Amino acid sequence: MAAAGLGWGRLLARHLRLSAARWSVLALVVLVTSAAVMIWPRWIERSATDELRQALSASGFVDPTAVPSSLWIDVMRPAPSAETAEAYAWGAVQRTLTQVHDDAPSPLRDVLDDPGMFAVVTGQVQLPVPGGSGITGMSIRGFTAPDVLDRVELVEGRPPAYVPIPSDQVLFPIEGEPGYEEYESPPLEIALSEDAAEALMWPVGESRVVATRYPWTQEIVLTATFRATPESEASGWANQAAQLLHPTTSYSIYQDVFVEARAYVPPGGAMMRLWAADTSSNQPSYVRLWYPFTASTVTMHEAGLLAQQLRDLVEVPVPVENGSVSFTTSAPDIIDDVAARQLATNAVLGLAVAAPAGVLLVLLALAASVIVQPRRTALGLLTARGASPGQVRALLGAEAALVAVPAAVAGGVLATALVPAHASPWWWAGPAAVAAAPVCSLALGGGGRPRPRVRLVTELAVGLLTLAATVTLLTARRIGTTAVGAASGGTDPLVLVTPLLLAVCVAIVCLHLLPALVRPVAARLRRRDDLVPALGSTLASRRRPPLASTIAVATGAAVAVLGQVATATVTHGLHEAARTSVGADVRITAGLSPDDVAWLEDLDGVAAVATVVSPYSSATFIAADGPTTTFTLYAVDPAALAAVQAEVPGALEVPTHRAGAPADLVLSERAGQPPGTAGELVASRRSPAVVDHLAARAPGLTGSGTWGAVDVAALQEAGIDLPPGSALLSVDPDDRAATAAVVAALREHFGDRATVASYDERVAELAEAPTARALRTGLAIVSWLGIGAAVVAVLLTLAGANEPRTRLVSVLRTLGLPPRAELRLVLWEIAPAVGLALVLGAGLGVGLGALLVRVTDLRPFTGTVEQPSIALEPLGLTLTLAGAVLAVVVSVVVAAWSSGRRSAAVVLRVGEGSS
């Protein structure tokens, strides 16, 4: 190197300057690739965090809540003022809950917004119903809690007056004392939310008189109406106090309407007066305690720890004055559901992206080799002037490192700025691998083609390793937890390695199979006069295509097909789940009168209606030999049910009742009674019955538990004739857009007394979850990445062979090769290998789809108990492969066009100089 007259630094700078344009392109590619690799896990985690926050915010049961049966906060303790009464009533419990909050570990302490909230609710007080209201019954419950008036804003009137309790705690005369029978209780002041006052038809200032448990009545005066403040809505207090802010309307199967509301009553004497007006023995007073849960601060990174801390809070009773309380919350289950979807997303996308990611690294290495290829003569001179091969490789490696490492770091930093998320140190392994690929390619150097024996041993080793990995993955992993690798908290490495190994094996098979397929074609084409097909097919049968490009093409086709198969499988699964959940196109749950059923049958867009009667939640089948089974009984019209469930997977088949014969029961598989068992059905009346068959599920009727179904005619014959409690509707199949109109009409007609669910809404709910969107988007990106990698591989392969090909074309031109014939030569050079790789890659994609369904739990996306089966859509697969073929064909045309641009004389002259 000293003889060259240049030091290492100057020589390195000179090489970088000579190839500045090529290195700039590679630096840009490394930067973008590094950013994409760094964004990928951040994007998945952000999607899961968004879904987790949405799910927690949408649920009304995430606040850790306790309704202790043995705890009574003394809201009737003697006190001179309302403020003092609150301090007396809540003081000890407030201090305890505050201490529990402050002692909680992070992140639990951070998501519990307030130290603790609580409320006391009295029993039910029946109100007189205004005439002509159409309401069967009205009632209120007293509600008092700390700082209620600070959390609401008055709409009309003034706050209720505080009623002090005398020190001897006697508000009423004692039975047997003078004046007991003649006593008149003073008016009791309450406040209602504006919604509750409207539902109860109670204007401010009006009094209503109710009976008490004593010989006198109680006058109740509404002094104010209120609504929650925006701060209360945001803090979650309004969610826990929803029954104070909104009335509850219930309906019986006989169309009775009952309205109940919570009324704010200050602690002290007012609560005692309202307690005296509670004449019901089965509606006790109770206490409600809760910690407001702040979902907006939860992150998926801390979700697992938070779920465990919440379970610890639930499992360990909290000591309070006069005992202890146990909290409940649905937050851990919600976190588990979202975590399951995140793990499934990671597993699916990891399986899909593993092979193209490996190919991408190979392509980066190949690109670096292509960049320095024009300088191979100069590198040969360096060796001739004293540089060892190791020194030359070190020089090239340093050259690549100066370009790739800063670009990879810049890409990682850019990704961090674009998608803020919790940064795991392992996430930098991706940019590090991207930077290392071109560096290692040049630093290690190409040792030429391996000897046949070495290559054969290597291929056999790869094949055995692939077989071992695939068998281990199929036999050691089972569907049933949340996703592959769930036990370890991450995606199983086998899921990442196996697809790449399979792609390598497919490429090796392609290389060995290609000559055997092309040789017969070449032998037939030699008999023709056209030189190009004969020469092209002969060269194709003798040349071994580069392994890297073959892997890339096979992988591109495989991941494109896998993306389409995975998307179709998940989509098909969630459609099945929606059908099974709803049980028809639309389900309405409400007490239905004959007029309601007639209205449903006449509703525009409705093709069929099946009503469902559930007379009792607890029916019993007594077998003749003694065993009994208790279950929820549903009665339907078999013909109507079959009509509305024509498109429902696993539709329930209910036998038609024969007059005078025993009722034919369909029982759930967990009922424990074998088919053919005879006995008695007890559902308010006894009637003979026989178990016709067992079923795994009852779509539209129930989702779980022990259940039974029977023809409604069998109950009517036994003297049980009750109105239906729900109905299943099918929409005109020729007008699917009518579903939205039918749902809107149902909600307008039935209002609050009905719950309406539709298949379309359920599909949208499952499909629009952030993790589901991330899965679809990720699969689309991986598919395009695979096709892009195939195109780049073809271009790099053709670019690497561009100079010898151009010399060959130039020589053939001097011998009379027609213009544009070089395109046909390039096609013969690349088309057989690419075509075979595309075909085998497509088969590999279908196989990876089957592997995906086998080793990855997709149920979190569909909400079903059963794993969805693989779904193949011929049209989608055809379009996907057509897109891949088109992209590769375009790349071949571009390469052929670039080969034909150079002058034959110039090429031949350069070739002579080189030789």
TrEMBL record:
Q: How does it sit in the membrane?
A: Multi-pass membrane protein
Q: Which InterPro entries match?
A: ABC3_permease_C, Lipoprotein-release_system
Question: For this UniProt entry, what is the primary localization, expressed as one broad class?
Answer: membrane
Q: Does the record carry DNA-binding as a key word?
A: no
The leader peptide range reads none
User: What GO terms in the biological process aspect are recorded for it?
Assistant: lipoprotein localization to outer membrane
Listed GO CC annotations: plasma membrane protein complex
In this protein, which residues make up the domain named ABC3 transporter permease C-terminal?
359-421, 781-901
Q: Where in the cell is it found?
A: Cell membrane
Tell me where on the tree of life, at the top rank, the source sits.
Bacteria
UniProt entry keywords in alphabetical sequence: Cell membrane, Membrane, Transmembrane, Transmembrane helix
Q: Where are the transmembrane segments?
A: 20-40, 347-373, 394-419, 425-444, 456-476, 496-518, 779-801, 830-853, 874-897
Family, per entry: Belongs to the ABC-4 integral membrane protein family. LolC/E subfamily.
Protein name, per record: Putative ABC transport system permease protein
